[in-house]
Design brief:
The protein is 43% helix and 23% strand. The protein has 179 residues and is of the alpha/beta class. A seven-stranded mixed beta sheet has the order 3-2-4-5-6-7-9. The protein has a two-stranded antiparallel sheet with strand order 1-8.
Length: 179
């Protein structure tokens, strides 16, 4: 009898965890959508030292999901940028120079020591954007971090000072500076 009771408790616990997991998924999708919206705001509220006919926003993310690339190129976001912009997927940091990326979004899966080392070499020509607080702490310029079901903007003060672009006060008033 005790064995049956334990099996029922384990099955109930598994069912509850699956339900919680299923409920957590929409929040991730919602955070992705909000980050994608913020990415267009970042483009719209930035001023570059040089003029570009078109800005290039590159996305370095896990190939299997491509959630940000899909979101940014969806019909829902067509015309979201006030500036001419092309959106490209890149497989490696090295591709950002070849593809002349102005902005580079790096998802949390691709954060590694090698990526941060290469970002340090690119910072003078590319605005790097991540999705974790660790991204800014380790050398990225900006991060869109989910906190309490909201997206917060974190900017690495040292990287921003030497950046090839400056952000408008409209964007900066929502940002928290670190470093």
């Amino acid at each position: 009898m005790i064995i049956y009771y334990r099996i029922i408790v384990i099955v109930c616990a598994l069912l509850c965890s699956l339900k919680l997991f299923a409920q957590a998924q929409p929040n991730n999708e919602s955070a992705t959508k909000i980050r994608a919206t913020f990415m267009f705001h970042i483009v719209n509220y930035s001023r570059w030292q040089s003029e570009f006919a078109e800005l290039t926003f590159c996305v370095l993310e896990e190939r299997q999901s491509q959630k940000y690339f899909s979101m940014l190129t969806s019909n829902e976001f067509k015309g979201a940028s006030e500036k001419p912009i092309s959106i490209l997927n890149v497989d490696r940091i090295e591709d950002t120079l070849e593809k002349q990326c102005n902005y580079l979004f790096v998802d949390s899966v691709n954060e590694s020591d090698d990526v941060f080392q290469q970002l340090n070499e690119l910072e003078r020509s590319v605005v790097s954007i991540g999705e974790t607080s660790r991204f800014v702490d380790r050398g990225g310029m900006m991060s869109l971090v989910e906190e309490f079901k909201k997206i917060k903007i974190y900017i690495n003060r040292d990287k921003y000072k030497s950046a090839p672009t400056k952000f408008s006060a409209r964007l900066l008033k929502y940002a928290k500076f670190t470093g």
